[in-house]
Design a protein that fits this description.
Radius of gyration: 30 Å
Shape: elongated
Distance between the termini: 92 Å
Number of helices: 2
Number of strands: 0
Order of helices and strands: HH
Helix content: over 70%
Strand content: under 5%
Structural class: mainly alpha
Amino acid sequence: MFRQSIVKATRPATRAFATTARAMGAGDTGAVRPTGQTDAFQKREKAQEDYAIRQREKEKLLDLKKRLEKSNDHIKQLEKDM
């Protein structure tokens, strides 16, 4: 009897998770189209991601240039001390 009450109590919870809502239709914004074309939203999003990546790479290059300059200064100082 106790087992039956547990089974009945958990059955509605499992059914609620079994169904999923449809996220995007064929022509919705951001959805992949059957022909493989992209819409303006996808193009804008890709452009923003590319811009962010370029900015991060630019920051890394500036950091590397500073470290290289610092290393060169250190080498010059060592050569001077010899």
